[in-house]
Specification:
By secondary structure, this protein is α+β, with helices and mostly antiparallel strands. It folds into 3 domains: 30-195 and 309-401, Rossmann fold, CATH 3.40.50.200; 200-301, 3-Layer(bba) Sandwich (Glucose Oxidase, domain 1); 409-501, Immunoglobulin-like (Sandwich). The chain is built from 13 helices and 25 strands. It has helices at 23-27, 38-41, 82-88, 129-137, 139-146, 166-170, 240-245, 262-265, 277-289, 354-371, 377-386, 393-396, 408-414, and strands spanning 49-53, 114-117, 150-153, 174-177, 190-194, 197-198, 200-205, 210-214, 226-228, 250-255, 271-276, 294-297, 303-304, 312-313, 333-336, 340-344, 347-351, 401-402, 417-418, 423-424, 449-457, 463-466, 475-480, 483-486, 492-501. The strands form 9 sheets. It has a 4-stranded parallel sheet with strand order 2-1-3-4, sandwiched between helices. Helix 3 packs parallel to helix 10 (354-371). The chain starts with 22 loop residues before the first helix and ends in a 10-residue tail after the last strand.
């Protein structure tokens, strides 16, 4: 009916859009609307203290409004902005990004967020490798002094430097760093994955061909969505100003992957759409075939669906193995880290990387610690690893069996000497796969090998477990005993993995 009026340009059906500000927590099953999940069972992580290492921020920012929360600890101090908001879900009154994802409030919030500063005078003027290295090495000692339960480290540090954190692990502090280079067996190394959310943008070319890209571009109702793209002069940079000076109203750029959308967020004021290389070639073919290429870009939409391939490891995230320890599988777990809405200054941006995935794991560890105060860092790590390749907080709360490790075992297998003030480690001849980890990696399987593991039953008093074996190609694997029976008197059991190479030549790494 309304389409018949000459003043009406177009009519679109009304739709209800769900908020996607904290979609990653919903995707992990930690929504307020799910009363039986880990979030509620752990009382929102009440009284768990999380330490965050990164460049400084200001607690006055609206992202960290603590209205409605109880008193904080003495010496309470914020350090990190984006990961802190991601991991600890402060009760922000309103979050928005280009009107695409408004929210009242985030769907996951840990009740008592105690973020304490680790290291002193941590600011941008101190950001050189020597000072950061010194701060990083003393992190474990600062965390112990501050009473931290979980340490979230969204920073790049070579694996050899992680020995400074071993002192904290010995005192019961779980360490969660980003990237596969943090390969020490006493930390939870995180990879980045995608979630079931996308920002589809329809591009209608002048030849009536419609293609779909990804964008954070949002246009007001009274703005035109018609855009003419013109060529820049040879040698000109493809910047917002150059595009507008050339008479263009937007940018369509192609890259290998559409896993990250940060580039589109910088195109404030003009349409900016990301497409993959195949789609980009189609656009180039169209532009080459006409003298006046025309395109119409629709406003971006927020789309969440089980039909999207998720979780999926992001293209930019390293899949391992570790270059430091071939006999230890890294990374340990994947978590949402692609196009995650997070705070920056007094606004919000999307961030991608393992630095965005790390706080998801740190927040989950905090909830698990609140639910199981007696669990060690190794037990928390075991519960997370054995419950899924992509982190599954609710399953991690009830893992059945855990692989626990006394911190002194790290000293034995890695030649680490821990004093009150220092930690020094040198690799020994004892292989790392003899550590009681929930995974096994044999770098050079030439002969038969027997690897012990000890498990602890942490759920039902009476339980029976049967081994299910799926051997890697070229390897025969057995488990002895293949049946473990637990009761009130027998909460611990030891078993052995036995592997034999079926080929005379070395098969390389078997994991």
């Amino acid at each position: 009916m309304y389409t018949e009026f000459p003043e009406v340009i177009s009519v679109e059906p009304s739709r209800t859009y769900t908020t996607a500000t904290t979609r990653s927590w919903d995707f992990l099953g930690l929504s307020y609307q799910m009363p039986n999940n880990l979030l509620h069972k752990a009382r929102y992580g009440e009284d768990i203290i999380i330490g965050v290492i990164d460049t400084g921020i200001w607690p006055e920012l609206r992202s960290f409004n603590d209205k409605g929360y109880g008193p904080v600890l003495l010496g309470f101090n914020f350090v990190r902005l984006k990961p802190a908001v991601t991991a600890y879900g402060l009760n922000i009154r309103y979050m928005d990004l280009f009107s695409l994802s408004p929210s009242f409030p985030p769907t996951c919030a840990i009740k008592v967020e105690r973020l304490v500063q680790v290291g002193q005078d941590w600011n941008l003027s101190n950001c050189n490798r020597k000072i950061i290295g010194a701060r990083f090495y003393t992190t474990g000692f600062d965390a112990i002094h501050d009473g931290v339960d979980v340490l979230s480290m969204s920073i790049d540090q070579p694996g050899e430097n992680s020995f400074g954190a071993l002192h904290a692990v010995q005192k019961g502090i779980a360490i969660v760093p980003q990237t596969v280079v943090n390969a020490a067996p006493w930390v939870i190394t995180v990879a980045a994955s995608k979630i079931d959310r996308s920002f589809p943008t329809v591009i209608a070319l002048g030849n009536k061909q419609q293609i779909v890209g990804q964008s954070l571009c949002y246009q007001e109702k009274n703005s035109s969505s018609r855009s003419i793209f013109r060529s820049l002069a040879f040698g000109d940079l493809c910047t917002k100003d150059n595009i507008q000076n050339a008479g263009g109203s937007g940018i369509i750029y192609a890259q290998y992957t559409t896993d990250t959308l940060e580039g589109t967020a910088t195109c404030n004021g003009i349409a900016c759409v990301l497409v993959d290389l195949d789609t980009g070639n189609k656009i180039v073919e169209y532009m080459s075939a006409t003298s006046s290429p025309v395109a119409k870009i629709e406003p971006a939409r927020t789309f969440t669906s089980k039909e999207l391939l998720a979780p999926k490891v992001a293209a930019f995230s390293a899949r391992g193995p570790s270059i430091y320890y071939a006999d230890i599988i890294k990374p340990d777990i994947a978590a949402p880290g692609a196009s995650i809405l997070a705070a920056k200054g007094n606004s919000y941006v999307t961030g991608s990387g393992t630095s965005m995935a790390t706080p998801h794991v740190a927040g989950t560890v905090a909830l698990l610690k609140a639910l199981h105060l007696e669990w060690s860092p190794a037990a928390l790590k075991s519960a997370i690893i054995t419950s899924g390749g992509n982190i599954n907080p609710n399953k991690a709360a009830d893992p059945g069996l855990i692989y626990d490790i006394d911190p002194s075992e790290y000293n034995k297998y890695y030649g680490c000497a821990i004093s009150r003030t220092t930690v020094s480690c040198n690799r020994t001849s004892v292989p790392g796969y003899h550590l009681n980890l929930p995974s096994i990696s044999v770098p050079d399987l030439r002969h038969s090998i027997s690897i012990p593991r000890m498990v602890t039953n942490v759920v039902d008093v009476d339980a029976v477990y049967h081994a299910a074996i799926q051997s890697p190609p070229g390897v025969k694997m057995d488990v002895e005993p293949s049946i473990l029976v637990f009761n009130a008197r027998n909460k611990f059991h030891t078993f052995h993995y036995k592997g034999t190479a079926l080929l005379e030549a070395s098969l390389g790494i078997v994991a």
